[in-house]
Predict the 3D structure of the following.
Amino acid sequence: MKGLFKKSSKKLSVVSLIVIIVFLLTSSLSIYAGVMMQGFYWNVPAGGTWWDTLASKAYELKYMVGGYGINRIWFPPAYKGQGGANSMGYDPHDYYDLGQYYQDGTTETRFGSQSELKNAIAKYKSYGISVTEDIVLNHRSGGKSEYNPKTGTNTWTDFTNTASGKCQWHWDAFHPNNYCSSDEGTFAGFPDVCYASGPAYNDMKTWMNWLKSSSNAGFDSWRYDYVKGYGYWVVKDFNAATSPTFSVGEYWDANTSTLDWWANSSGSSVFDFALYYTLRDICNNTSGGGYLPNVFDYSKSYAAKNPFKAVTFVANHDTDEIIYDKMMAYAFILTYQGYPTIFWKDYYDYGLATGGGASPGGWGNGIKQLVWCREKLAAGSPNIEILKSDDGDLIIYGSKGYSTSSPGYIVVINDHPSQWKGAWVQTSNSYLKDKTLKAYAWSSTVSGQNVQPQNKYCDANGWVEVWAPPRGYAVYSVDGL
Ligand code: ZN
Ligand code: CA
């Protein structure tokens, strides 16, 4: 883009202007294309094996189902934390130690060595999967005690002990210093990094570009940890300085106006904590008392309000509170707008890849089949029309089609504790008209009800009666695909 502007800076032709506008439009519209995997959970096995575990799953995650799979994986903080071999990475000590220096009691990090990290990243990238690094900017850990002339006390702010020799900061890199006393937030008593003065602003830009190089690591995008702890302008500036293919901030807040403010101010995507809590309340209310249409409410779902900036999820390493009928939540985020995230533990440890419904389960159930629906039927980018939202126990919506091989779908979600629910709806999706529709994905946690819904005929005007089992869902599309 830089060269394009430079070349035509004297006289920007109409043609190149149109090219630029089309590029900007298509790039923003495709932001939520694909599916992300969170490649860890809290306290993954220690002992330096996790990078190898991640590498070993790259192929199966790329080709999860029918040739479709994830397009991004989020790695934990890969740099040495004060907790050494036990650290999950959120207590960063030496940013340049990816498991190649002995300090904090270990050479390898909890996850492995630098060469194992590089191998894992290269494996994903060889399949065209982006690799997102978790960037902890707010605070730092593991410094030595030094006299701090600002506080008149001793503080743990002497970082001249880094084995890499890099980012050897002192008290003036933290709050308070002579420039400012504080910023937007602190975390758990850790020294709070200052970006308005001192060395951190430039050092961290340099470091993130170092992380991008495949000779060091090879990450191409960022997940910003705890962005409530510092100004949005830090993310904005650091993205400008490092040109990631994507970034998402952890702004832990359920207020969709606040999420929108942060996303628009920083220019970054943001995790949809609003939808997370909305889905949690619906799923955990096993008597069906939750109000399903809340998922379409702009004040209760950031994905509804701004799909191009919302990164949706139903659990992560910090919070995993949906304890009942989590597949209803996955069915929603994987078929709806916004960029969905699959939690590693759900996929590999909780049996939701192909299950999550009541026995017998099997084909049609689970996360994999929903990924197929999104990637195959909606070409990775659901374009949503709401078809029914006036029943607290039943929602029906569709994605438009893109071609006869990606004809879109109709999704039915039912949180009633015991009854199948269905309704007549009229879709505007011409690919579904005058076709027999089949449920390609479904599940129910109610005993005896986890059975594939019957095929339904969608008439030439788009009218069709679709159903979902209790505490479950169904995803319909043209039979015979
Ligand atoms: Zn400051
Ligand atoms: Ca802070």
